UniProtKB/TrEMBL annotation:
UniProt KW keywords: Oxidoreductase
Keyword Transmembrane helix among record annotations: no
Domain 3-hydroxyacyl-CoA dehydrogenase C-terminal, first and last residues per copy: 185-281
Protein name in the entry: 3-hydroxyacyl-CoA dehydrogenase
GO molecular function: (3S)-3-hydroxyacyl-CoA dehydrogenase (NAD+) activity
Length: 290
């Protein structure tokens, strides 16, 4: 099985979906972009146009190549039949399952559905599907055009040839793909969750500010500190992932969600995407009382 010339539908035009659409279009695929939020797909395409202009201005792309990539992306207001769907919608099992049921009614039998879930069991997501073998995790990292790693996640029912086709595709897109089985948090989020949790406990104990924690971890060699990284991920998504990994680990206290996260979500301080989280954006000044 090959997906090298696949027509692709990206469902969810948020942070991740927009980045995935960009990478797929730059790799030469015809890409459709769908979101249930009115005009989100158009807005994502308009933002991508700016991103591609920026890359052209920096000399990383020629104007022709950028224009051709942009022209390959079509915002759509309904799901369309393609060879590969990449799902990047809200981190919620029931909503994702409902989407897969809709997709299966529409897609040809051989089409592949890849989910960008950060934490939900691919095995569980496939339950109830007519063809669970065609569901596979394709877990990108944020920001998608820059981050090389893609975890290709096989659930109990995923066909090996489907996982391999997605693995090969990620490689063609210049990514570093790895195979893993569907366990809570997969590889990176399994390790990253306790890292965020400790930072959140430090904050709750009022032992350090977000700036101090981030500065310490950066000087210890991390590219970003945990607070700025959570702001980049988005606290709504990050909190949903924390809850999901906590439940999937049978409520092991190492993975306990934090009230700090709950408060940020309740306030709508979702991080970069809402202009405020631990910091204010775009300037990056501290935003929380300590
Ligand atoms: P986001 O909140 O930026 O975007 C999600 C988009 O999905 C929104 O535009 C929303 O309107 C749309 N949506 C919700 N329900 C929908 C439905 N039923 N059909 C179509 N569109 C729908 O979220 P983000 O950050 O892009 O996350 C998306 C997925 O990617 C989640 O599963 C998340 O766990 C995963 N992910 C997120 C990462 C991050 O750093 N934010 C990293 C890796 C994976």
């Amino acid at each position: 099985m090959t997906l090298h010339n696949a027509r692709i539908l990206v469902v969810g035009a948020g942070l991740m979906g927009a980045g995935i659409a960009q990478v797929a279009a730059q790799a030469g695929h015809e890409v459709f972009l769908f979101d249930t939020r009115a005009s989100a797909a158009e807005a994502a395409k308009a933002k991508l146009a700016q991103t591609l202009d920026g890359l052209t201005a920096k000399g990383k792309l020629t104007a022709d190549v950028a224009a051709a990539a942009l022209a390959r992306i079509t915002p759509v207001d309904a799901l369309v039949a393609v060879d590969l769907v990449i799902e990047a919608i809200v981190e919620n099992l029931d909503i994702k399952r409902a989407l897969f049921a809709e997709l299966e009614a529409l897609l040809p039998r051989e089409a592949v559905i890849a989910t960008n879930t950060s934490s939900i069991s691919v095995t569980a997501l496939a339950r109830g599907m007519q063809a669970p073998e065609r569901l596979v995790g394709m877990h990108f990292f944020n920001p998608v055009p820059l981050m090389k790693l893609v975890e290709v996640v096989s659930g109990l029912g995923t066909a090996p040839e489907v996982a391999q086709a997605v693995f090969d595709l990620a490689g063609r897109w210049g990514k570093t793909a790895v195979h893993t089985r569907s366990t809570p948090g997969f590889i990176v989020n399994r390790i990253a969750r306790p890292y965020y949790a400790e930072a959140l406990m430090l904050l709750q104990d009022r032992a350090a500010t977000p700036e101090l924690i981030d500065a310490c971890l950066r000087s210890a060699g991390f590219r970003m500190g945990p607070c700025e990284l959570m702001d980049l991920i988005g606290h709504d998504t990050n909190f949903a992932v924390t809850n999901s990994v906590f439940a999937a680990n049978f409520f092991d206290r190492r993975f306990t969600p934090s009230l700090v996260q709950q408060e940020l979500v309740d306030a709508g301080f979702l991080g970069r995407k809402s202009g405020r989280g631990f910091y204010r954006y775009p300037e990056g000044a501290p935003a929380l009382p300590v």
